[in-house]
Write a structure and sequence with these properties.
Layout: E1 7-9, H1 10-13, E2 14-18, H2 24-28, E3 32-36, E4 41-42, E5 45-46, E6 52-55, E7 71-74, E8 82-84, E9 93-94, E10 98-103, H3 110-124, H4 141-146, E11 148-150, H5 154-195, E12 202-203, E13 210-211, E14 215-218, E15 223-227, H6 236-239, E16 244-247, E17 256-257, E18 262-264, H7 266-271, E19 282-285, E20 296-299, E21 304-305, E22 309-314, H8 321-330, H9 332-340, H10 351-356, E23 358-361, H11 364-403
Parallel strand pairs: 3-9, 16-21, 17-20
Antiparallel strand pairs: 1-11, 2-10, 3-6, 4-5, 7-8, 7-10, 12-13, 14-23, 15-22, 16-18, 19-20, 19-22
């Protein structure tokens, strides 16, 4: 840590307030106000997309609400996660698992302490052991009050906060751009599967409106469908020195699978009834309760697969694998509903079901035109994800260097502010 900084207990700088318990009575009572939970508090930002409401007695209002500039610090879960309340909704109550930190002094920039807490809890480990030793680790108010934190001069706090805020705003912008691009892709995809690239009139079908020149066929009629298995890990002959890619269900997140991380031997291929799946196959995760089930990817290299994946080795002269992936991605929620429809706690799809799944089938040239449109949108999204990763890497590297004193406030140079439209 920077040796030039003065360190003080957090309680000397901030008043620490406690929140309210969300009881059944509080959910149903009158005089409701918005209510912040730990799930609303992310590192350096608040997610207000979903905000609960709770009833709160008038006499509790002064002590149980947040004001602009207050810090909110998570007691449990990802301990220390902190963000600043900007007063965009008023009044606002907060959960008992959140600590409210309110400045006691005039020489405090709350933003600096949000950044410090992030570095301290995620990079430096200087608060290891600060949480209470219970079955659910938590950061009590007494432990939080006793934490030693730096107290640089106000101008230094402000300079650090300005630079880190600039990077954090760039991160937020890239996230918003990605979200907008993904929404554009969803809308474009919906339109393409409804009216095609030629803007045809839609016709009714068992899968909903499709262009009037398209057909609907079963997935099984387009090629072979099957799944794989997992050779015994205890048999070294199946894994040791293996050279043939073996894929598990997590690989579907690649969308384009160009290589494997795990490999089996030729012995395993021969003895464990493992399919040899050729490039161009579409793979689908068919089990699981998380987000994996229903995701699809196109295989670009020969491989074999686990029992948690199904492969669709379709005739490339009838359907383009990227077109098929594009359509199946629109069916993600519907496929998950089918998987959970049997009431089983372990949701799953079956190859027998996939063989009967209806899919649209335009002529091949139109499929490829649709793929070209979707690919351009995917490339745009990938570009912004790369930019996001780059800015996040820069932010975390700079955060660490500042908080360890490797970079001093005097070394920080702020970019010029955009003054367009301001008064001369």
């Amino acid at each position: 840590m920077s040796q030039a900084w003065t360190w003080r207990p957090l309680s000397e700088l901030f008043e620490i307030g406690a929140g309210k318990t969300m009881s059944a009575a509080a959910r149903s009572g009158a005089n409701k106000v918005p209510f912040l939970r730990t799930s609303n508090v992310l590192w350096n930002r608040l997610d207000l997309s979903v905000v609960d409401e709770m009833a709160i007695a008038p006499h509790e209002l002064p002590d149980k609400l947040v004001e602009s500039g207050d810090l909110l610090v998570c007691e449990g879960g990802e301990i220390g996660r902190a963000a600043i309340w900007d007063g965009s909704i008023a009044p606002m109550a907060f959960q008992n698992h959140l600590h409210r930190l309110r400045s006691k002094r005039g020489d405090i920039d709350p933003r600096f302490y949000v950044y410090f807490l992030q570095s301290a809890f995620t990079q430096l480990g200087i608060f290891d052991g600060a949480g209470n030793k219970t079955t659910i680790p938590n950061l009590s108010s007494s432990r939080l009050m006793a934490l030693e934190v730096p107290h640089p001069p106000l101008k230094e706090q402000q300079a650090i906060a300005e630079v880190l805020s600039t990077l954090h705003d760039a991160i937020s912008l890239q996230r918003e751009t990605i979200s907008t691009s993904e929404e554009l892709k969803r809308a474009t995809t919906s339109g393409l599967f409804r009216r095609g690239v030629k803007g045809e009139l839609p016709q009714g079908s068992e899968i909903g409106p499709i262009p009037e020149t398209w057909q609907v066929v079963t997935l099984g009629s387009l090629g072979k469908i099957g799944n794989g298995s997992t050779p015994k890990r205890s048999n070294a002959g199946y894994w040791s020195g293996g050279t043939f890619p073996w894929l598990n269900s997590a690989k579907v997140y690649d969308r384009d699978i160009k290589a494997g991380e795990q490999f089996v031997t030729r012995t395993a291929l021969a003895e464990c009834h493992l399919p040899t799946v050729e490039p161009g196959a579409v793979l689908m995760a068919i089990t699981g309760q998380g987000k994996t089930l229903g995701n699809v990817a196109v295989l670009r290299t020969p491989a074999t697969i686990s029992q948690h994946l199904a492969y669709i080795q379709a005739d490339p002269d009838r359907i383009d694998p990227d077109f098929l992936r594009g359509y199946l991605e629109t069916q993600y929620e519907a496929l998950r509903q089918v998987a959970s429809g049997g009431g089983s706690t372990k949701g799953a799809l079956t190859c027998a079901f996939l063989k009967t799944l209806p899919v649209p089938l335009p002529e091949l040239t139109e499929q490829r035109n649709i793929v070209a449109v979707l690919r351009s949108l995917d490339q745009k999204i990938a570009l912004h994800r790369d930019k996001l990763a780059l800015v996040e890497e820069l932010y975390h590297a700079l955060l660490l260097k500042i908080m360890t004193g490797a970079i001093l406030a005097d070394d920080l140079v702020l970019p010029p502010r955009d003054t367009a439209g301001s008064a001369a």
